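Page 37, continued from 36.
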């Protein structure tokens, strides 16, 4: 599927990718040509299906004119500092490995889409949807950038990465390494956070007794999830068709959402879960489905990695099964219940249990992994993720990054994914759905956006202190007498 206005790179831009010996660059001889792939990452690698590609889709919007040669040069000098971006996946005797792509060329992974005229948000959204249906080339490293010019006076980069390379936290680390904190741009990235200089944070080793108890709890959670009944039958559980659509809305101010969370003594993620619950409830109600009886269940991503270790990439998070308070009509009650349920999960071993499940799945034959994954994903209707992006504006090749949007892929039988990512004082909401489940995704996205406004009004009202009425003249003598007795 190709956009009618697209075009390949110009001939004079087809410069070969060269790895040099300058500081910050990658030298081929210094890198191992092969390394073992974790079974957990292998499980993510094998989750690709024709209906659910296991690809993280993101878009970076920039202001100003596009300098393509400068952009390619920057990416060529920085991105290969992470070996995963110059390696492909190879299986030998059933074991997966990361192997250096001897034919690696940066120009195979960066493509310019030249537009005939300025692109509207709707046209860009439609173009992204076309790109999201395209599988990545397994004969080369599993990532790709599409540069789209003439976007809102600037340009956009569609960055697509197979989930086996990294998770959301790792992807943000890559983004920080690719970009600068000012527009004084150079090819060599900043030393801070450089993947060649970073040191992993090691956890203290627990006693064997403590480890044994922990594994027993993890096994109990895996068993409980396996025995959990499938989620409520709604249109979100319709069979997957594979026709997906990407949707996003204008960003929310971070301060507004943070103030709301502080007002109620909850986290940003609690607010996110409550807002999505409200949107899903309203969406189903508008379609005549019962919403007061049984709550929907979601698979919510839960980070298990130290931020300092994000440079190692890979996947280190769990998916926790959360009953969303979609059966509650009151916004404040939904928020409090979301907070209570998320807090309970944080104290449990469920996140580690699902991460262990994925490691086990990566050891199984492909058909058994798919069976286990379908069994697991039948327990929920949607995937929710919350990603903490860069706190301050970033620059790439001298251009300021104005917006960062990310879409969460879905696996197994799930076809609805909602993402929440922060960047430079704003929060971006994004929806990625199978249109057989959600035929009008723009409506669901609008309801999610409106749910934050509803929460703002409801929480403000709930925390306002009602003024104490002045005592009437009849009560003054009695109050004086009581004061004297005291």
């Amino acid at each position: 599927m190709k956009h009618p206005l697209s075009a390949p790179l110009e001939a004079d831009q087809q410069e070969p990718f060269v790895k040099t010996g300058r500081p910050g660059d990658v030298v081929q001889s210094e890198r191992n040509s092969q390394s073992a792939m974790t079974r957990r990452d292998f499980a993510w690698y094998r989750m690709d299906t024709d209906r659910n590609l296991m690809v993280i889709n993101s878009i970076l919007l920039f202001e100003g004119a596009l300098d393509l040669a400068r952009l390619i040069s920057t990416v060529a000098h920085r991105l290969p500092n992470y070996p995963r971006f110059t390696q492909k996946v190879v299986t030998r005797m059933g074991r997966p490995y990361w192997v250096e792509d001897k034919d690696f060329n940066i120009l195979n992974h960066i493509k310019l889409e030249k537009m005939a005229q300025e692109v509207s948000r709707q046209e860009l959204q439609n173009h992204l949807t076309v790109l999201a249906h395209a599988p990545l080339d397994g004969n080369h490293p599993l990532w790709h950038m599409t540069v789209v010019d003439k976007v809102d006076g600037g340009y956009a980069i569609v960055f697509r990465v197979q989930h086996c390379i990294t998770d959301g936290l790792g992807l943000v680390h890559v983004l920080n390494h690719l970009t600068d904190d000012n527009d004084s741009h150079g090819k060599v990235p900043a030393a801070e956070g450089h993947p060649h200089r970073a040191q992993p944070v090691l956890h203290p080793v627990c006693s064997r007794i403590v480890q044994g108890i922990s594994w027993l709890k993890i096994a109990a959670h895996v068993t409980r999830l396996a025995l959990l009944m499938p989620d409520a039958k709604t249109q979100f559980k319709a069979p997957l068709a594979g026709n997906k659509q990407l949707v996003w809305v204008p960003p929310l101010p971070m301060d507004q959402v943070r103030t709301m969370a502080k007002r109620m003594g909850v986290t940003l993620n609690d607010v996110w879960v409550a807002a999505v619950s409200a949107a899903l409830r309203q969406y189903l109600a508008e379609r005549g489905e019962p919403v007061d009886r049984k709550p929907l269940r979601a698979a919510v991503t839960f980070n298990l990695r130290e931020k300092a270790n994000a440079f190692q990439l890979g996947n280190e998070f769990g998916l926790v099964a959360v009953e969303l308070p979609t059966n509650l009509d009151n916004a404040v009650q939904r928020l409090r219940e979301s907070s209570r349920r998320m807090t309970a999960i944080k104290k449990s071993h469920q996140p580690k249990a699902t991460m262990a499940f994925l490691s086990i799945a990566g050891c199984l034959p492909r058909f058994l992994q798919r069976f286990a994954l379908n069994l697991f994903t039948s327990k929920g209707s949607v995937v929710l993720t919350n990603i903490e992006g860069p706190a301050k504006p970033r620059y790439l090749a001298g251009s300021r990054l104005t917006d960062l949007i990310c879409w969460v892929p879905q696996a197994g039988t799930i076809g609805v994914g909602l993402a929440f990512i922060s960047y430079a004082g704003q929060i971006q909401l994004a929806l990625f759905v199978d249109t057989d489940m959600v035929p009008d995704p723009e409506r669901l996205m609008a309801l999610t956006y409106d749910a934050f406004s509803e929460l703002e009004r409801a929480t403000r009202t709930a925390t306002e202190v009602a003024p104490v009425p002045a005592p009437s003249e009849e009560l003054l003598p009695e109050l004086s007498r009581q004061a004297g007795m005291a």
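The first helix runs from residue 39 to 45. Flag for discussion at group meeting. DSSP finds twelve helices and 16 strands in the chain.
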